[in-house]
Design a protein that fits this description.
The structure holds two protein chains of two kinds.
Chain A: E1 16-25, H1 31-54, E2 57-58, E3 69-75, H2 79-87, E4 91-92, E5 95-105, H3 108-114
Antiparallel strand pairs in A: 1-3, 1-5, 2-3, 4-5
Chain B: E1 4-8, H1 19-28, E2 33-38, H2 43-48, E3 58-65, H3 70-80, E4 86-90, H4 94-101, E5 108-110, H5 123-132, E6 135-139, H6 140-145, H7 148-167, E7 172-175, H8 187-196, H9 201-206, H10 210-234
Parallel strand pairs in B: 1-2, 2-3, 3-4, 4-5, 5-6, 6-7
Classes of the chains: A alpha+beta, B alpha/beta.
Chain lengths: 125, 235
Amino acid sequence: MKSQPKILPPSLRQKKRYIIFKVLSEKPVEYMELVQSIWRSLLNFLGELKTSELNIWIIKNLFDQKTQRGLIRCSHKEVEYIRSALALVEEAGETRVLIKVEGVTGTIKSAKKKYLGYKDLTDFK
Amino acid sequence: MKYYDLHVHTNVSVGENSLEEIVEQAKRLNIDGLGITDYFSTVDEFMRRKKVKRPDIDIVFGVIIRAETESQLKKTVNAVRNKAELILVHGGNYEINRLASEMPEVDILAHPELERRDSGIDHIVARNMGENNVALEINFREILESFKKHRAYVLSNMRRNIYLAKKYNVPIVTTSSAYSIWGMRACRDLASFANLLGLDLPEAIATVSSTPEQIITSNRQKLANRLDMRIGDEL
């Protein structure tokens, strides 16, 4: 028996959307600083209850330090809440930043293809 | 309508307050039935615990079982089933969650999402719980004692569990799981959390009234039948 729950069948899984964002800042931003400021903004603006409904996940290995682009996974109904909370992010670490949403997709694959500039999708994980 | 809170700890194990203080507080909060659940290391210890009966409040003496391994859980549940009116299993470990869901002797699976990143329940566990009538617990203490990001995760996991429980007709109970009298809340207020996490208001109120009442009455009937049989055997 595995010590983790089994993956749910597709009909019971939560529907997701992926938000592609770009960070505009004075200095390049570290991933951890960005995550902290996004979470702070979400909790301050939307509160704990609404944040729990968003089912949010900031995907670590898809945040590109050079281009300052990243992906956020969320529930398919709550995209607008996250857009608004992202718009309220003012600083990360010690630099002033703003976060621009570039697009919303239904899969990581299409996000990579359309927005993150991946040409070779064979190493798709 | 009767309101029940089926998961309260006393100073016999991890709680801070005595049974009398808890009963007094329950009266102030208009709770009609109270499940006193404590951790015990042996069955004798449970049998020796002080039991009181009161006309104004229905006190149910139960146990909560914290098992490390599957065999330990099986053994403890079998030892205690004929003696306790209520059996809860301390969830959190997926293997324990799954085994508890397969045992009709268990009444409530407490906090399956405790100290986990995922919700601790998948479709298999939920289906088993529905078939074996093992109730899912919404644990108020977990919400009360977490904050900010962690609280958002806890609520999110509970919402997932309630969604699965609804799909597979799993009974749901909302409890305070209080360690002290200051952790107890009025049952109707606990129901509002169930309501926020995805149940309709009548369903949410049922989690603190009719569902716990059913669990207790059916357990009492079963225990009474067993006692009758035992008396017959002796004669």
